[in-house]
Amino acid sequence: MTGASARARRLPNIPATRPEPITTPELAPGATIGILGGGQLGRMLALAASLLGFKCHIYCPDPQSPAFQVSDAYTVAAYDDEAALAAFAEAVDVVTYEFENVPEETARFLESRMTLRPGSHPLAITQDRLVEKNFLSSIGIPLAPFAAVDGPDDIAAAVDVTGLPAILKTRRMGYDGKGQTRIDSLDDTQAAWERIGKAPAVLEGVVDFALECSVIAARSTDGETAAYDIAENKHHNHILKWSHVPASLSQETQDAARALGAKVTEALDYVGVLAVELFVVRDHDGERLIANEIAPRVHNSGHWTQDGCLVSQFEQHIRAVVGWPLGSAERRADVVMENLIGADAEHWPDIIKEPAARLHLYGKAEIRPGRKMGHVNRLK
Amino acid sequence: MTGASARARRLPNIPATRPEPITTPELAPGATIGILGGGQLGRMLALAASLLGFKCHIYCPDPQSPAFQVSDAYTVAAYDDEAALAAFAEAVDVVTYEFENVPEETARFLESRMTLRPGSHPLAITQDRLVEKNFLSSIGIPLAPFAAVDGPDDIAAAVDVTGLPAILKTRRMGYDGKGQTRIDSLDDTQAAWERIGKAPAVLEGVVDFALECSVIAARSTDGETAAYDIAENKHHNHILKWSHVPASLSQETQDAARALGAKVTEALDYVGVLAVELFVVRDHDGERLIANEIAPRVHNSGHWTQDGCLVSQFEQHIRAVVGWPLGSAERRADVVMENLIGADAEHWPDIIKEPAARLHLYGKAEIRPGRKMGHVNRLK
């Protein structure tokens, strides 16, 4: 395996076909689930797995990982530490991941030894915006106009496709608004290229959307799919702040979004939970969905399921990963999820007094601006 | 402190008044909660505490404790190991317990150093059936007729109080039907005394009850109380098998049971969750409640709250222990809880296919007859 800096510069080598996976039969309670990544998503996956009688072993380079506090075992090591990865693989019965930037080599290394669910293939696709967009287009899912940008001189031609304004985004390693910049004029191309760090990029047309939403979909080893009700999402400083369920969308649009989510899981031959972020455009023809991006993991906009459903997205993911049938995605309450970002978490003394609110905190010791500290689900 | 065998023979020295407690202010998320006992109740308390951002440190002599799997830290040591207890007290911000047979000396040792919630006083009362019955009588709660039995020669006089048949129960260390025997005839007194191990005992009249139920009540450091809806309980081989909520009781009886639960918490100056097991007698006057016993802890008949309420009994207990306001005890669904005892747990592959069922397994490696392996909450 190569070091992190080499990885960041290299473009992915995406397989034309998915490698033949090592298959694991349905796991029984008592088995150990390995989770790559020890953040809040890994923590909530571990909590959900524990309710079903599984043990969890977290692998994360950060010695302060929140998921360690609730797990049976953990490994603090780099994602390119082959000895640590090999020992981890020996210690667990199946591996999953909580974040989409697991290095592809790490995923392949594990996949060559054991069952990784979802596999390296969804990572390879979603770690590169251009590849992801080509994939979504190939299965007929509408997108904003886009074009590849490999240097500043490509931008003018790309603008012919996207129009202006447009957003220049690095193909790799962008999240929460990082690695992207807006272009309003062709005079700005060189500066924009510098602003994103001169990395291979995609130019995207700006969508004049009425609202943003997301679908959380799941697929089991048997190919069964399920999708939760659609969340309407509101961002603040490019970070998700609120998810409302039900979304203020026609039933037809909600059904279309759920079907879209299921379709993505099928086209990826996916096992586990994923999210597709969507824009909703309203015009004289009604509502239309435009896909933004895929997150091949449990997702912040699905946190409402913890208190709005019998089976949360976290339990759903664990069920898929251990080869169990999916649980019901039925919604049992109206929910508004609010993210507690940075100093928002200091409001816990008020939140715990609200009769219909459920507080979820992630066990992070230090409050930092923009850091996701917790969330609250308010039920109606 | 004394060894276990000495403790079992010695009668408790119950204080006339509660010792002045060491008080801890409201704890903030990130604090560490110490839990005495590492069984399934400790495990579910730890999971609930984690959702609120607390860390848990479990103290239990059993190196295979299920709660260890989901906790930040644990201590394997005997309950009379003063050095281990002292180190535990140093490592945590507050201590609670998951079982009522925590040795009173252990509780006092910790209480002299830090905040123990609930304290040693409820343990002292509930660890001795006679003391517990006298306490309940003293606050006006109806009981089956009872009398103390300190030797076989006391039984005839006790039968004058209770009538026959009656149940002879050891004053201490009985649970799930252990340490008790039925007496149908005065000819059986010597044999009955031997069957219960010749230990100080109480004779109880047999109640001709229509059904068994329980109230789960909570009290905060501020003296606020809350009680969940009443569960109707069905036992099998003296072990709880089913809890149904709502119970098939008049609203008046349910309200009376909830009030009874709150009254017990107040009379004990209690902080945390407790259960009172109740018999319901139906006669020409209608329904009457008769208290059976108090469990000074979260209780199996409250497991339905995990999926039937926004705030479960486990979160409620943690809220009280850390000095937070109580959460809402409102019920949001009809629930039937089924305990998975021994080989029942082997039915998990069927249970996970039920759309309205939520499986909870405790991470116990070995199935043994009569062992509580998990439970399932079925919602309507």
Assign the CATH topology of the largest domain in chain A: D-amino Acid Aminotransferase, Chain A, domain 1
Q: Report the portion of residues of chain A in β strands.
A: 25-35%
Helix-strand category of chain A: alpha+beta
Specify the oligomeric state: homodimer
Low-confidence spans of chain A: pLDDT under 50, at least 5 residues?
A: 1-16
- The number of strands of chain A is 17
CATH superfamily of the largest domain in chain A, by name, is: ATP-grasp fold, B domain
> Would you tell me the overall average pLDDT of chain A?
93
Helix content of chain A: 25-40%
Assign the CATH class of the largest domain in chain A. Answer: Alpha Beta
Task: Tell me which protein chains meet in the greatest interface and how many residues each side has.
Answer: A-B, 45 and 45 residues
Most strands sheet of chain A? 9 strands, antiparallel
Order of helices and strands of chain A: HEHEEHEHHHEHEEHEEEEEHEEHHEHEE
Number of discrete helical segments of chain A: 12
**C-alpha Rg of chain A, in Å?**
20 Å
Whole-number count of domains of chain A: 3
| Tertiary shape of chain A | globular
Architecture of the largest domain in chain A, according to CATH? 2-Layer Sandwich
Gap between N and C termini of chain A: 50 Å
